[in-house]
Write a structure and sequence with these properties.
The protein is of the alpha/beta class. The strands form four sheets. Strands 3, 5, 6, 10, 11, 18 and 19 form a seven-stranded mixed sheet that branches. Strands 14-13-12-15-16-17 form a six-stranded parallel sheet, with helices on both faces. The chain binds beta-D-glucopyranose (BGC).
Length: 397
């Protein structure tokens, strides 16, 4: 019903009373709506590695505190592929499939009676994680089992073209940011990694990073790696990105677009001659590979911090030489830190930094979206990565 009114408004036909419009919707507009909206979602099924389209229906009208949105853009991410690869998605209770999609730009269609601050036509990005029982201040710090994650853990995601949400989980984005706003969620993950590192370092080394900005190493050339580059560059920090690509390839060239430098794994110097002069103060590890973490760790300067932003969903038991790492971390007073998801402050910072990037490096940040595809062509992208691809976005408009 609400959707019918929405499309009539968009078509400029709602110049009549809303009751009359509702009648019109019921009797005349319904067939048009069905063809206007792609009413299928992309799901992961228990027992299968294949993504599938499933038919979905229009959600109910929003309750008091809810907002009804339509998906405009949806990012495909490594987590989606990991969920599929596991053949064991964390499905909502009693179901056998999980609707994927957690990086979303939506448009508000209708709001519940007590919602303030949102109106039809607003652009929004939803947060991923939600508390199961009581609201907590930092849900991103909660133990597994205390939360759901839309499109990832026990709650359906945003490849459903229409979805309801509580208004407290939505962030409004300015219309001029729409082309980039789908990048908010992955960027918020990188912002959290940096915010946590800053909080720890300013607690134990007051002023250190203020007096001399940290020299940053980012490992991994996927969307989170580039998000980490963006988050660090927005703070004006010097960044080196480490990856497996040859220097004359697209992604390596992209690094320079952000005024950062690129070093290939083959050329990386793990043990610099003068560690304090040539080492890194902050390593943002975005590959989830133990081999990479161990290769770059010796290049961390005294009192440095390495943050792990990536991991594999099913780690294998492997023999690795970890004693050297332990020795170095101990004698150099270093910190190894894991971070996941993002706090609300990190979402806000991500939106602020995307606005900054749009003003300063709009071409570079736009080029991070390496494929824009229609939802009906999405399945291949959930199963495969393009060799030099960074971010694939499904365009629902
Ligand atoms: C998402 C995070 C989420 C994490 C673990 C990532 O892909 O960006 O929001 O917390 O996966 O499920």
């Amino acid at each position: 019903m609400v959707l019918g009114l929405y499309w009539m408004q968009r078509a400029g036909t709602l110049a009549v009373s809303s009751r009359y419009a509702q009648k019109m919707y019921k009797w005349a507009i319904l067939p048009q709506i069905v063809t206007l909206v792609f009413m299928q979602a992309i799901a992961a099924q228990t027992g299968s590695k294949k993504p599938t389209f499933i038919d979905v229906s229009e959600p109910a009208s929003p309750r008091e505190t809810q907002v009804l949105c339509r998906t405009i853009q949806l990012g495909v991410c490594g987590t989606d592929r990991d969920i599929l690869d596991s053949a064991d998605p964390w499905v909502p209770e009693g179901e056998s499939q999980l609707i994927l999609g957690h990086e979303c730009l939506g448009e508000v269609i209708a709001v519940g009676g007590s919602v303030t601050g949102f109106a039809p036509g607003d652009f929004v990005v939803p947060v991923v994680r939600r508390s199961i029982e009581k609201q907590v201040e930092r849900i991103d710090m909660a133990p597994f089992g205390a939360y759901t994650e839309r499109g990832i853990a026990f709650e359906h995601g945003f490849s459903h073209p229409l979805w309801l949400d509580e208004s407290c989980y939505l962030f409004k984005v300015p219309p001029h940011l729409c082309a980039l706003a789908v990048f908010t969620e992955p960027l918020s993950v990188a912002e959290k990694a940096i915010s946590e590192a800053v909080a720890i370092q300013s607690g134990r080394l007051p002023k250190r990073w203020l007096e001399r900005p940290p020299r940053v190493l980012v490992t991994g050339m996927g969307p989170i790696g580039f998000a980490a580059v963006v988050a660090a560059r927005c703070r004006g920090w010097e960044v080196t990105m480490y990856g497996r690509d040859k220097p004359d390839t697209f992604r390596a060239a992209m690094v320079e677009q952000f005024s950062a430098s690129y070093v290939s794994s083959a050329k990386f110097i793990s043990e610099p001659a003068d560690l304090e002069e040539e080492g890194f103060d902050l390593i943002l590890e975005c590959t989830g590979s133990d081999d990479v973490a161990l290769q770059v760790a010796p290049a961390m300067a005294t009192c440095g911090i390495m943050v792990w932003l990536g991991s594999v969903r099913s780690p294998r038991a492997k023999l690795q030489p970890v004693e050297t790492l332990m020795r170095n971390v101990l004698v150099r007073n270093q910190i190894l830190l894991g971070t996941v998801n993002a706090a609300l402050r990190d979402f806000e910072l991500a939106i602020e930094h995307l606005c900054q990037m749009q003003a300063e490096e709009s071409e570079a940040v736009n080029a991070l979206i390496t494929a824009r595809v229609a939802p009906r062509d999405a399945l291949w992208h959930y199963e495969n990565r393009e060799p030099q691809g960074i971010k694939t976005v499904l365009m629902y408009d």
